Description:
Layout: H1 3-16, H2 54-59, E1 70-75, E2 78-82, E3 87-92, E4 97-100, H3 107-117, E5 123-127, H4 133-136, E6 149-153, H5 154-162, E7 173-175, E8 178-183, E9 186-193, E10 201-206, E11 211-213, H6 226-230, H7 234-245, E12 251-253, H8 263-283, H9 287-297, H10 303-326, H11 333-350
Parallel strand pairs: 4-5, 5-6, 6-7, 11-12
Antiparallel strand pairs: 1-2, 2-3, 3-4, 8-9, 9-10, 10-11
Helix pairs in contact: 7-8, 8-10, 8-11, 9-10, 10-11
Amino acid sequence: MKLSTAVSTIACLAVIGTVTTVSAGPGHEHNPANTISTEIDHPDSFRHFASELPAMRARAAEINTEFGLHVSEIEPGLFFVTDLIYQSAFLVTEDGVVVFDAPPSFGERLRMAIEMSAPGVPITHFILSHKHADHNGGGAFFSDVEGLTVIGAQANAESLEANPLRGVPRPTETFEEQLSLTIGGVPIELATANFHSPDTDVMIYLPEQRFLMAVDTITPGEAPFMNFGATSNLQGYLDSFEIFLSYDFEHFLSGHVSVLGTRQDVETARDYAFDVRDTVGDLWPGFMDRFMANMELTEFQHGNLAYRMTMEQIRDDCAGQIVDRWEGTLSVVDLWAESHCETVVLHSIMH
């Protein structure tokens, strides 16, 4: 059902609803939906969520520096860095160091990691995966690097010019859709996409290292973060998997959690996302029947309430199926499946 059909139906039924006013009565208290309780014995207690899978825990990186970061050389000259929540990377070349993102949670310590791994080597380039401050607000700690070249997509540069974000460096060099460059003899390929940011995203690919970086996409070993990584473009998110898998890569840096991903992680995340999409699709033909049943249940007095009830029913049916199928494969499915199903429900209404 299209949004226009649903809205017109609600509008007509809302007119009927003007005959009688429905009141919750004195003493009514709002009961917030989808709220996790910190009380151990509460029906919605945090205690009721599944623990992370042992296979996921076994892959987790560990802090291995005195300054609270994990730093590992995943290919000669290519270093992976995480504080176990955010991720970035840097490349040591003959001409200098290339930095790929600097989260504010460890921007200053990222400078320490570079100095520890490549003492005395100058930092020459900073490449932005996108403009969001949670992944590049640590760029402020590189503002004193003389002659630093900051590379970003033109759309991100324009957005930052109009709405600067604290700590995020403004690009000194931009590109529209693709950019191939060689720094210190190492080829780097950049290409724009639309899987997360409302402006644009940048995929960072190092063919010799078989390294692909696409931030705010998947979380290796886990179900994606809420609303599929809080994407602003669900169709773009779903389409991105074909683009990612067209690259020849072994390492996949997605920006979150401590695990550096693999090609298999991307394939598993694709299968999960497509399963959510298809599950909602299978439930969708029954939307209007559910809606009319809920209108009758609410005595045709509250079209918006009936509409929300219908959306939640499809969301919950979807989430139940997804958790059953995926809880043994990906961690935290029971934590985020509802949001994934709801995202697809909303997308289905509007498309």
